[in-house]
């Protein structure tokens, strides 16, 4: 079956690398989207920059006329998504092409996130999993909130894990589904030490160790219908010595948290209402909790399910 | 001259548990509003006078004209000077 996510590029080696990355991610949007990539020095944007949104190394600018421009600061690269377009015009400088692995993980992933938005898939910074009782879980939080370590721990207990970091929300027959972007669960040294698992793949540029769910005894799951949402953090005052604890959240509190972790909702007026409605539907669909993670989970992972039962 | 009110075009809103969550795409802020605030913002999709807003609230809830007027006035006062509600003067 032809992929709905295609790339064109005149540089065959570069195209092969991008193709392989897209194939590994296992994303199959419901309508076609494309990356049209060329290698050249990108030009600075002279458009109507209403607002800029920054994340590490990447700047997203939206225009009052619609459309998005995405800029990679690490090595010059730019992508243009015209209003309504489902093809992104991507210009990689030779320096960016030389750093293609890093470029894929940060810049091009952001471009794909904005392309997928045009198919009704809305990005959320979250892990997704399915427990042994077949309940879907979504675990949202920032880069130091314990998502990856928790995802790895759950995989080691036989849970199905879709992603530790990048998921897409889509409405499907009245249900909100979280679609996983397949990538290794990337553990920092602290999480790796806590998990005490051999193996894994060194991700030296990220100073992390990567595991596929299968490496840990779990299985990969492409789609999850969340029934439980956790907004996690790791207590800084007690270094995780206190037991894991959970506080139930109302739907409105859950929605405001979801907005935080699905932050592109505030960009591109033409998609914002659909994105907001999807987050609200998810807040209605699932039971939500604010969870402070403790090290006790490593001795007793089932405590997580007990806390929300 | 008559003053009419309209919600800012950058607002996006949704209802949850009978109340509202509002996104402001321009300021990138989001906030909650109570049930009557949500009803007023929904009515303000097109320009309305205070009298029309009072009527819209009374159509939706069993409240007196005074109660509805109080809610409308309080909401518009809170929005004054913010980028949530815009005003226009019409002859």
Could you explain how this protein is built, in words?
The complex is a heterodimer of chains A (309) and B (91). The N and C termini of chain A lie far apart (41 Å). In chain A, strand 8 and strand 9 (136-140) form a beta hairpin. The mean pLDDT of chain A is 90. Chain A has 309 residues and is an alpha+beta fold. Chain A contains 9 helices and 20 strands. By secondary structure, chain B is of the alpha+beta class. Chain B has one domain: Outer Surface Protein A, domain 3. Chain B has helices spanning 35-43, 50-60, 65-79, and strands at residues 2-7, 11-16, 19-24, 29-33, 85-90. A 3-stranded antiparallel sheet of chain B has the order 2-3-4. In chain B, a hairpin with a 4-residue loop joins strand 3 and strand 4. Chain B is globular. The chains are: A alpha+beta (309), B alpha+beta (91). At the A-B interface, helix 6 and helix 7 of A face strand 2 and strand 3 of B.
Nutshell version of this structure?
The complex is a heterodimer of chains A (about 300) and B (about 90). With about 300 residues, chain A is of the alpha+beta class. Helices cover about 30% and strands about 35% of the residues of chain A.
Characteristic key phrases:
heterodimer, A: 309 residues, alpha+beta, ten-stranded mixed sheet, seven-stranded mixed sheet, 9 helices, 20 strands, 35% strand, globular, B: 91 residues, Outer Surface Protein A, domain 3, three-stranded antiparallel sheet
Topology of helices and strands:
The complex is a heterodimer of chains A (309) and B (91).
Chain A: E1 5-9, H1 12-25, E2 33-39, E3 49-55, E4 58-63, E5 68-72, E6 77-81, E7 87-92, H2 94-98, H3 100-117, E8 122-130, E9 136-140, H4 147-156, E10 160-163, E11 166-172, E12 175-180, E13 185-187, H5 189-195, E14 201-203, E15 208-211, E16 219-220, E17 223-224, E18 226-234, E19 245-249, H6 251-261, H7 269-285, E20 287-293, H8 296-299, H9 303-307
Parallel strand pairs in A: 1-2, 2-7, 9-18, 10-16, 18-20
Antiparallel strand pairs in A: 3-4, 4-5, 5-6, 6-7, 8-9, 8-10, 8-11, 11-12, 12-17, 13-15, 14-15, 19-20
Helix pairs in contact in A: 4-5, 6-7
Chain B: E1 2-7, E2 11-16, E3 19-24, E4 29-33, H1 35-43, H2 50-60, H3 65-79, E5 85-90
Antiparallel strand pairs in B: 1-5, 2-3, 3-4
